[in-house]
Fold:
Amino acid sequence: MADGLFAGRYELAELLGSGGMARVHRARDTRMGRTVAVKTLLPTLAGNPDARLRFAREAQAAGALNHPGIVTVHDQDEISDGDTVVPFLVMEYVPGTTLAHLLHKQGQLPPERAVRIVCDVLDALAHAHSHGTVHRDVKPANVMITEEGAVKVADFGIARVLHSGTRQTAAGAPIGTPSYMSPEQINGADVDARSDVYAAGCVLFELLTGRPPFTDGNPLTLMYRHVHAVPPAPSSRDPRVPRELDELVLAALA
Structure:
């Protein structure tokens, strides 16, 4: 790093998060004078074509969108780490927490707040859909809640850009998070906006009851249930859930 700057431009600060594929740091963009989030692919995956494709897809999908409810991707580039070339993304820094962390900390949410959050998620997704992009991994971990309470959808890493002329995953290969995947996504079929609506319905179910519609079993069992089982009504898990929300959730999961 020249002069201690990442990619000659970014002052890296604390680690915000790390997973099996990437790590994210808060950073200062010294050229623009703003705080950003820098997401780097783990060096051990830098030679993995699928991982690199996911990074490129996230930049392509989110970078083409401009909506207050979607985390902005500012830039995509690569940096040499010894003999390895590591791709990275520069994104909007969102001070706050994930919806998954909020659920873990507070448990199920009051119905009014749950509906408001999911409506904001759907508004952001509608913008993506209008630009031909399906997220395909809508879940609490990919929804940010800012310190002011605003909602932002993140991580378009497995998004599909419709009408792009290419399939971005192998035919027949299910991709996503089993607890929130639509039946057509599990079956490896072409997906459209309805898959994101299904996932948002699963998220609303979880916000209302504390758990997704299907929870027990391994990933294969969960996927089987999404395809073959009848989703329960949220009020069957918690009688305090209003019946009109049962209808709303079950319509999304239909």
